[in-house]
Write a structure and sequence with these properties.
It contains 13 helices and 16 strands. It is of the alpha/beta class. A hairpin with a 5-residue loop joins strand 2 and strand 3.
Length: 489
């Protein structure tokens, strides 16, 4: 089962006992007549999740009632993600004896209660992050692990049903679009050598910034749904026209092929790095940067085990590459995912600038605010606005965690940004915080290429100083619209 946009509302049922003083409080586990605890329904679990989100702005599975966590694990492929160590020990280049002992204690608990061998219970034991995934079946295992020492988090890494209740008809393709679209002539202007400049690039002074930098020499990592094998401009035609001497790589950490099957990643790659040539196609913000595109997820919503592990593994891989300076992530989830959070911290410690989407969703779910991982202090959070003066787009998320905004929607027509399409010779429109994020990553590449010896902090400072609100920070829009020309100068 997959997808919704970004949230759903469950209903309370019989096994959850709620107090009148606190409707989100859950009593001690109830049992059926045989004395065996029943697995809570998806609606019961989701009721607890919604209460956590509304009260705390995040979901803490570790401190949730054991029956809720256990039931979520049982409704999520039976896989429990366990982050071990002390607070802040997200990863280790070389594990200490204390960390190894903490992990072995987890295995001992699971073996003794589940009655299985160590090897049969382990789904994954990460070599970099201090996290392991285990197959469990018993409530008692959760209760014992909640009492164990040196546990950072316990999470049902395969549970994604929260986003599947409210809008079941939208499960399969969140953010996906492989269609060829006709582009309105008012949404671009032609520049040499016969490329199309998206209408919002002039607002952010990107063409003027190209007089100083085109992103040459900078490598950007893109974690998304991959790039299409059918789009030549992201393959053999990546070096063409004014775009030359650069490289593109298509890699994968999600299940099977590295090739995009959704269309979202292809659109993001186009907005970020599409070549400037004579094919009459939309150009990217950093048309001379190198690109490393990972297919790490099926679509934009990280709601199953393979997507969460795929994104985590892509972050680690890009973190380990000395040539990668920037990571663009137009994907996310309403609450924190431990294995992804740990990987973000790992890539950040490696010096990467991680640009993340603030969130794009429907009227049912935009109350959640800035989504994960854009809500982390280690990321640069970006959202989209309309071309009226700081008018919110209909489906974008906003809040105090936002750092920058990009204009991506026309107020008079609701049309978005033209980008190269899924297949060679095609084009499409893309909007939301997704395209705002990819565009910002492209601008950051322009700045870093202009100042190759700068650190991440120095490049980010350049972006901040180019923001319309700088030196102030707006509670909703952060530093506001980026002026690419000012940033590179």
């Amino acid at each position: 089962m997959k997808k919704s946009s970004i949230l759903a509302i469950g209903a309370l049922a019989l096994i959850l006992s709620c107090s009148k003083e606190n409707p989100n409080e859950i009593s001690e586990p109830s049992t059926n007549l045989s004395g065996t605890q029943k697995v809570l329904s998806v609606s019961e679990i989701n009721k607890h999740i919604e209460g956590e989100l509304k009260q705390n702005g995040d979901m803490n599975w570790t401190t949730s009632p054991a029956v809720v966590l256990w039931s979520a694990v049982m409704n999520g492929n039976g896989i429990l993600s366990v982050g071990y160590g002390n607070k802040g020990e997200s990863f280790s280049n070389k594990r200490s004896v204390k960390l190894n002992d903490a992990r072995e204690n987890i295995y001992t608990i699971v073996q003794s209660i589940e009655g299985v061998s160590k090897s049969s219970s382990i789904v994954s034991a990460d070599e970099i992050l201090n996290v392991t995934e285990l197959k469990i079946t018993k409530l008692e295992t959760i209760e014992a692990l909640q009492k164990a020492s040196h546990i950072r988090y316990l999470e049902p890494i395969g549970y994604g049903a929260y986003l599947q209740e409210k809008e079941p008809n939208q499960q399969k393709s969140a953010g996906c679009n492989r269609n060829n679209e006709s582009i309105n002539s008012a949404d671009y202007r032609v520049i040499s050598p016969n490329a199309r400049l998206p209408w919002n690039f002039d607002i952010h002074k990107i063409p003027q910034a190209w007089n100083y930098s085109t992103g040459a020499g900078i490598t950007v990592g893109l974690i998304d749904t991959g790039i299409s094998a059918s789009q030549n401009l992201l393959g053999g035609g990546f070096n063409d026209g004014a775009s030359n001497g650069r490289t593109v790589e298509r890699l994968g950490t999600y299940i099977d092929s590295a090739n995009d099957q959704c269309g979202h990643g292809t659109s993001m790659a186009g907005a970020l790095a599409a070549p400037r040539n004579d094919d009459a196609m939309p150009v990217g913000a950093a048309y001379n940067c190198n690109l490393v595109a990972y297919r790490a997820t099926e679509d934009v919503v990280l709601d199953d085990y393979d997507e969460r592990k795929g994104v985590s593994n892509a972050l680690k891989a890009l973190g380990n590459r000395s040539d990668v300076k920037i990571i663009s992530m137009s994907i996310g989830y309403p609450w924190s995912i431990g294995v992804v959070k740990d990987a973000v911290k790992y890539a950040y410690r490696k010096g990467k600038m991680i640009v993340a989407a603030g969130g794009t969703s429907t009227r049912y779910t935009n109350w959640v605010g800035v989504i994960f991982p854009a809500n982390m202090s280690e990321t640069v959070a970006v959202t989209g606005i309309r071309n009226n003066k700081y008018e919110e787009c209909n489906i974008c998320h906003y809040g105090r965690k936002i750092d920058f905004t990009i204009v991506m929607e026309k107020a008079d027509s609701d049309r978005h940004i033209p980008v190269i399409g899924f297949n060679t010779g095609t084009q499409s429109y893309v909007g939301g915080s997704s395209v705002a994020t990819a565009t910002t990553a492209g601008i950051a590449a322009l700045v870093w290429a202009r100042n190759p010896s700068m650190t991440r902090s120095q490049v980010l400072d350049k972006l901040k100083k180019s923001g319309e609100f700088y030196p102030n920070r707006n509670r909703t829009f952060g530093y506001g619209n980026i002026n690419a020309l000012k940033a590179v100068k």
